[in-house]
Each structure stands twice: as structure tokens, then as C-alpha cells.
What we know:
Protein name: Nitroreductase
Structural class: alpha+beta
Distance between the termini: 30 Å
Organism: Bifidobacterium oedipodis
GO molecular function: oxidoreductase activity
Domain Putative nitroreductase TM1586: 7-245
Number of helices: 11
InterPro entries: Nitroreductase-like (IPR000415), Nitroreductase/BluB (IPR050627), TM1586_NiRdase (IPR029478)
Strand order of the largest sheet: 1-2-4-3
Bound molecules: flavin mononucleotide
Amino acid sequence: MAEHTQLIDAINIRTAVRAFDDEPIDDDMARQLTMTLEPINLLADLSIQLVRDQPRVFTEANASGHLTNAANYLAIVGPKNDDEAKERAGFYAERVVLTATLRGLGTLWVAGSWDREQAARHCRVSDSQELYLGVVIGYPANHLEYQAKSYEQLTEVQRTHRTSKTFEQFTPTMSDEERQSAPDWFKAGVEAAMKAPSAMNRQPITFSYNAADDTAAAHIDPTAGDEHWALNDLGIAKLHFQIGAGQGKWAWGDGGLFIHR
Ligand SMILES: Cc1cc2nc3c(=O)[nH]c(=O)nc-3n(C[C@H](O)[C@H](O)[C@H](O)COP(=O)(O)O)c2cc1C
């Protein structure tokens, strides 16, 4: 796995991890994660914080067996009542998730499987901010065995571990002809977005390619039933698309355009 160090590799092997080893994130790993977080927080105007060794935040989920040994998390904190910040949170926190994946850590976005009030006690949230979501982080169960797996074995797990909407469902406004003639960067972008995490695996984001101006657009699908976390999922899907496309930049917002250069 050592030679696979690019963000696209992380996309190809990442899955939600719900069982962790009972091993703390040590100071050295914490420092490396914090070094990733600091510039991202500046860029994103967010306050993503690493909180270690607080198993009480996950008492219920660990006791029910839904999670195992969950104890550390990224607290995703940003400005209150700010839709664009919620989208940025998805985009930039997923960037941290992918970095953590490349370091052999497992992650799980959490909206429900934690005690949010307890989680808020261990991070800094000012009066103008709120705690949006969390990402559980830690060494996956049997992590030495996990880290010994080849890249091909890990991509196979990623490909088969859950259902996904099809490429056609991800591009519902396009005809078959338009799909076929779309540039490779668009197809690779959509394929990377198909591997993105989303709340309850609803995959609420769709994409389209506009040949007239060579742009892509991302939309929230209102029928996906994901009103609550859709902006976060929009940000996550846009990050995956951008990495899959290889280069380019999004405009924020539902319907935001992607320019590939
Ligand atoms: C915003 C968000 C919230 C989530 N909340 C939870 C949660 O509370 N509990 C849980 O077990 N999984 C949660 N998940 C994980 C999703 O269920 C998971 O990402 C999805 O099923 C796709 O699987 P994958 O991540 O393995 O690709 C959440 C994911 C996202 C993006």
C-alpha cells in the first residue's frame, strides 16, 4: 500500500469503519493530523478539531455493538446558520478523512451514532458557531492485518462493500449519447463521487456536463430524502469529483459549476 499515496488512491480504498482497535492515536499521529487540520481550517474558515480518548461520547453506540471502541473524533465546528459553510465542512473535512485514510486510519462520519452534547464539551464552540457533525477516527479493528492488505484487496473491498446508485442515476438529466461523449475527466469525477460517503448512503448529489461551455454542475436531488445533511454531502461529493477529475475548481452552492482547468 506504501506506493499509493495520492488522494485518488484514498478514494479508491476508503470505506466507513465502525470497528476500531483499542489503541490510542499517539502524540505523533495526532501532531500529523493537526498539521493537516490547521491549514485546512484557515482555508475553509472552519474549526475542525481532533478530540482524543473520549469514549463517553460513544457509550451508547459502543454498548449496542453499532460501533466498537469508538473514542476519538474530529469535531466539525463552523459558523451558525451558514449554508455555504456547511458545504465547505463536507468538502474540507472529507479532505482530512482522505489524508487519515492514507495514514492507515479508519473513519466514520457521524450524525446520529454519538452523543452530540457530550462531544461538544470537549471542543471549542463559540457563541457564533455550532458543532455540525463528527467523524470518528482511529485504527481499524485488527489494523496490522488491515495494513498488510494490498491496494488491490482494499479497492476490491471498497467496490463491493455497499450498494451504489449507477452512473446513469448520478447523471439523470443526461442522455446516453451525452454520457458517452462527455470528456474522461467528467466520467472520472462522477466515478469518484460514487465512492463518496453520504448520510445513510442516500447519495443525494447528481451531476451534469454541459458541452456548450465545457463545465460540469452538481445538484442536490430533492427526492433523495436527505434534506438535513444534503449540503454536507454536496461538499463531500464535490471534493471526490474534483480529485477524480484530476484538476479544476468548483463554485459553491447547489447548482455550482465546475471548471476543469
Ligand atoms: C453526513 C453523514 C452522516 C453519517 N452519520 C452516520 C451515523 O450517524 N452512523 C453511522 O453508522 N454512519 C453514518 N454515516 C456513514 C454512512 O452511513 C456511510 O458513509 C454510507 O453508508 C456509505 O458507506 P461508505 O462510507 O462505506 O462508502 C454518515 C455519513 C455521512 C456523510
